[in-house]
Every structure is written in C-alpha cells, then in structure tokens.
Design goal:
It contains eleven helices and no strands. It is mostly helical. The longest helix is centred in the middle third of the chain and has 38 residues.
Length: 262
C-alpha cells in the first residue's frame, strides 16, 4: 500500500470523529478493520488436532490484530501512546477512545438555553460592572443573546466616554493644582516684602506724607509758611516777634557789659 495513505495526523485528544474516520479508512483499505468489530468472535484455544486451515486462520487473525493495533498506536500523540501502549487488544483501545472522546463531543454539542447563556455572560462581568450586573439580574425580562450583546456594547461605549471625560477633567484640575502649588497664596506679597524696594502701606503713607521743611517766610523749620508768625498779614504775630527780638538783644547787651565791667 502507498505510504502516503498510511501517514495520519497524530491524535492528541481533539477532533476525535475526524481522526476516527481517517483511521477507519486506512484499516478498511488494509482489510483489517474487521478486527474492531464488536461482534467478532474471539479465537478458540489451539488444539493438537487442529487442521492446517484452522492454524492458518488463527495465524492470519493474530497478524491482523497486531497490524491493526500498530496502526492505531502509530496515529497517536506521544502522550496517548504512552497511556495505551500496554493495552494488547486493538478493539479495547478503539472502544476506550469512543467511550471517552465521543462522550465529550456529545457534551459539546448540547445546546444550552439562551437564558442560561445570558446569565453566564452577566455573571462573568468584572467587578467594576457590579451595579449593572445587579440591575440586569433583578429584572424580570429575559434578554436574548443579541440584546445582551447590544446592551453591553452600549454600556462599554458610555463607560469609555466617561473615562475620557474624567481623564480630561483630571488633567485640568491637576494643572490648576500645580499652578497653585507653584504660586501659593501670599507668596507674591512675601516676595515683595523680601525685596529691598518693598514699602508697606503704612510706611508708604508716611513716605508720601508731606514733611515740614524750612518756612518760606522766616526760614525756620518745623512749621509751614501759613503758620509763621512773621507773616505780614498777621500784625499781632509780627509785634510779638519784634518784642521778642528786642528782649533778646537787650539780654545780649547786658551780658556783654557785665563781662566788660568784670
């Protein structure tokens, strides 16, 4: 037989039905698939008086059994080969595969109710969807798969949009916080106070408050011209000033005379 027909993908536990059909084709082409027939009678124990035909039939049966078992094991992955290599009967290996993997495929083909699938999807939502999950589960309406998918898609879009807005506002608030941190309240005033040119409001008032310089009338300080007693428009003040000047002059003359006589 052509070797290309014998070459099979190694079975690793998946797609059992496909693999089984391929093996069945190979074994049928080799005329040894009958070995896997569950109704096949077992070989009788050899006897001394067996005819040559019985001996030849037993020999062919044993060879077919060996070839069939070898083809099945040769089409297995290393893991499955190690599990079934100690099983001597090809039919036992074949039936073990059918009982295990066909049952699994039947389970996979079971159609679950749509309400059960919706409940499973809602139950698997992340913790951040806790409020939404509670609202859905407490509603009496049964949602279809298409409806729940539409709800989740809309909800996800809204959450993404809200997140973008929060991030945008967060960036603005952060910028304002940084600006306030760089320019704290009162720092501008403190900078002015620390500079040499700063003048407090009180001192500023004193600085610009008019100072009493020399009088324009008599030339003496500490009074204004309008308050000067030597002004011509203040007659009484002028007479008093002249008297004071005469008294001061007489006092000076007496002092000089006293010094001369002494």
């Amino acid at each position: 037989m052509n070797q290309d027909l014998v070459r099979l993908d190694r079975f690793d536990g998946s797609n059992f039905t496909r693999w089984q059909d391929k093996v069945k084709f190979i074994l049928t082409a080799l005329r040894i698939f009958y070995i896997l027939d569950p109704t096949l009678a077992s070989l009788p124990e050899p006897k001394e008086n067996d005819t040559p035909q019985v001996v030849a039939a037993r020999k062919k049966r044993e060879e077919d059994e060996l070839i069939c078992r070898g083809h099945i094991l040769n089409a297995l992955s290393d893991r499955l080969y190690d599990l079934y290599t100690n099983t001597n009967s090809a039919r036992e290996i074949w039936e073990a595969f059918e009982n295990k993997y066909k049952a699994e495929e039947k389970v996979l083909k079971i159609e679950l109710p749509e309400a059960f699938q919706v409940g499973a999807i809602v139950a698997k939502l992340p913790s951040s969807w806790k409020g939404y999950r509670k609202r859905i589960l407490h509603k009496s309406k049964d949602y279809s798969l298409e409806e729940i998918q539409k709800h989740l898609r809309i909800k996800e879009e809204l959450r993404s949009r809200d997140k973008m807005v929060e991030e945008s506002n967060g960036g603005t608030n952060k910028a304002n916080a940084v600006s306030k941190a760089n320019h704290p309240r009162g720092k501008h005033n403190n900078d002015k106070k620390n500079s040499g040119n700063y003048i407090s409001p009180k001192k500023n008032q004193e600085h610009f408050k008019g100072k009493k310089g020399p009088c324009f009338v008599c030339g003496k300080p500490r009074h204004y011209a309008r308050e000067c007693r030597y002004r011509k428009d203040q007659k009484g003040a002028v007479v008093n000033a002249i008297d004071e000047e005469i008294i001061a002059t007489l006092s000076d003359v007496c002092v000089v005379q006293g010094k001369v006589q002494g």
